[in-house]
Amino acid sequence: MPRIFVHTFTVPPDAIDVQGHTNNVEYVRWMQDVAVRHSAAQGWPMERYARTGTGWVVRSHSIEYLQPSRSGDVLSLLTWVAGFRRHSSPRRFLFWRASDRQVLAKAETLWVFVDIATGRPRPIPEELSSAFDIVPKDEDVLKAVPGIS
User: Fold this and answer.
1) How far apart are the first and last CA of the chain?
2) Sheet with strand 5-10: strands edge to edge
3) Which DSSP category does 125 fall into?
4) What span, in angstroms and rounded, lies between the C-alpha atoms of 105 and 137?
5) Stretch (H or E) spanning 24
6) N or C: more exposed end of the chain, with fewer CB within 10 A?
7) Calpha distance 63→22 (Å, rounded)
8) What is the C-alpha separation between 122 and 103, in angstroms, rounded?
9) 105 pLDDT higher than 70
10) What's the CA gap between 37 and 73, in Å, rounded?
11) Do the beta carbons of residue 108 and residue 93 sit within 8 Å?
């Protein structure tokens, strides 16, 4: 089970805005999608959350855009869990384009663990937090991926 989850995909034409690069909303959607994929890879698919009546909601997103992406670009989206608090967990992301060895964006989402029926925060159970290795330093991610500097 990977500490750093990587999903590689091609930017589709419908992700492009009037300025000719990827729309900001697409980055947020991709971040959510890769978080769900990483959770499933760690043994926590959406069905498991549904069975427990729990799930995650976003408290905040932060994205630093460094370079644009365009239709047809092949991107790798890396994600990792940076820690756990009682009710929340910061998850970080890095958008990487291998063709020119560029980091396109860095991001973080603060997720809050909730009871689905009430929407109220719940303590994150040990069974869930222990499914993920914590990667507290972004530098560890950069060292783990060949070609990223």
Assistant:
1) 24
2) 5-10, 74-81, 88-97, 102-115, 54-65
3) P
4) 16
5) helix 24-41
6) C
7) 14
8) 35
9) yes
10) 21
11) yes
Q: 0.90 exceeded by the pTM?
A: yes
- Look up residue 25 and give its two tokens: 């909303």
C-alpha span between 1 and 3 (Å, rounded):
7
What is the token pair recorded at 35?
Answer: 């978080």
Say how many C-beta atoms besides its own lie within 10 A of residue 59's C-beta.
Answer: 13
List of domains in the chain: 5-144 (3.10.129.10)
Residue 76 token pair: 């790798």
Distance CA 11, CA 17 (A): 12
Q: Which of 40, 20, 21, 37 is nearest to 29 (CA)?
A: 37
Tokens at residue 23, please? 């729309």
Q: CA-to-CA distance for 79 and 102, rounded, in angstroms?
A: 16
User: How many Å apart are CA 84 and CA 90, to the nearest integer?
Assistant: 7
**Pair 105, 66: CB distance under 8 Å:** yes
pLDDT per residue over 66-95, tens digit each? 999 999 999 999 999 999 999 999 999 999
